[in-house]
Amino acid sequence: MEIINVGLIGFGTIGTGVARVLRENNQLITQRLGAKLELKKIADLDITTDRGISLPEGVLTTDVNEVLDNPEIDLVIELIGGYEPARTFISRALKAGKHVVTANKALLAKHGDELFQLAEVSGVDLYYEASVGGGIPIIKVIRESLTANRITAISGILNGTCNYILTQMTDGGLEYDDVLAEAQKLGYAEADPTFDVEGIDTAHKLAILAAMAFGTPINFEGVYVEGIANIQPVDIEFAREFGYKIKLLAIAKENQGKIEARVHPTMIPEHHMLAKIDGVFNAIYINADMLGPSLYYGQGAGMLPTASAVVADLIDIARNILGKSHHRLPFLAYQSPDSSNTSYQSIDAISCNYYLRFTTKDQPGVLSKVSGILGDSNISIASVIQKGRNDAGGTVAIVMQTHCAGERDLKYALDKIDALDIIDAQTVVIRMETDL
After folding, report:
1. Averaged pLDDT in 10-residue chunks for the chain of 436 residues
2. Positive or negative CA dihedral for 314, 319, 323, 326?
3. Most buried among 34, 46, 252, 315, using CB within 10 Å?
């Protein structure tokens, strides 16, 4: 039976998971593949910490060159994350004629096009299923299952940390800081949660999905990003009164050659399937012209779910090796991503419904002044909630839901409103998606 040798760079949580999957499901994988995947070398700076897995003597090394320069290794897995040295390691592997599997969404969002071009020139494959959605096979769905479809929109909950925090705030009425601290204790949030809570991790993933969906080069800089740190329980409660839930949503839409790609807290109707995705789970909702809407749901992170996706890529590439083929599938779903006819829009160019919460002095005429400025800026009000006086400060909350309006018009109006002497705090704005 043919043996395909694998080298692993990075023996952290996911790397340990990959080793477990390859050992514990070895017989199953061999039966399905018709060849044996052999974990030949694992390179990591720390090879003394007990990972709870038994490996043959000589597999572990602190020298990455034993993976990259080993002529017996056919396929390299990169699981160290970050930009460097991951970029250098992947480039070296590709140039050496080795196929590569990575889960590194940050690297692909920034340098994916460069690495895919290098893989093509080198005659090898570069697979990345685990970079988006953890164990959810969304890359395979877009690249293979929806090949006959024109995708018009993708919406997704792509970060389990943020989804956990917002779920706890919604269910328990808790403050953001308290839930974040709890998430860190439980291991759902990093000690430095910046990439997660500021939406950067989600934006990396959306940049990859948008390129695949719409046939463009990856454009991380074209993704608008806004995090969840300013969400307050009062806004979650008002959302409930309107019949909505707040989620950190990744949104990509294409219309007449223009692409919206944005990540921000979003109110979505509570009856929508995405509104029901709670805790650390992820989901991606796709609108396609032939299939219609479809939802892909599962664990978006974690040792074994992510390792499952990594090993699935290993098996796919191994099948290519056995069939003596490479580049059987285009790296980003299109044979030639086109940057000439498609541009990414600024956030100022979008239109949607909005939730607005004004903190105003409790005096006559406030509502008419606010609504007058909105009306003069072509913003139509769909509904209004006005709460009673705040005993501590003599202010009231006026909450509005608008009809579809332009972002540029809204910003112009709010600049005027927030400058009024009747306004006590900056207006809270949350975008609403009523037709996902």
Report:
1. 96 96 96 96 95 93 97 97 97 98 97 96 97 95 96 96 96 94 89 94 98 94 96 95 96 90 97 95 97 95 93 97 89 81 87 95 87 94 79 78 96 95 93 91
2. negative
3. 252
Check: CB of residue 119 under 8 Å from CB of residue 100.
yes
What gap in Å lies between CA 177 and CA 189, rounded to an integer? Answer: 12
pTM here is 0.94
The residues assigned a catalytic role are 205
Q: Which helix (H) or strand (E) holds 384?
A: strand 381-386
Fold of 3-134+303-322: Rossmann fold (3.40.50)
Nearest to 429 by CA among 374, 361, 387, 362: 374
User: What is the radius of gyration, based on Cα positions, of the chain?
Assistant: 24
The CATH homologous superfamily for domain 138-299+340-344 is Dihydrodipicolinate Reductase; domain 2 (3.30.360.10)
Task: Please report which residue ranges of 124-214 form alpha helices under DSSP H.
Answer: 138-140, 160-172, 176-186, 194-197, 200-214
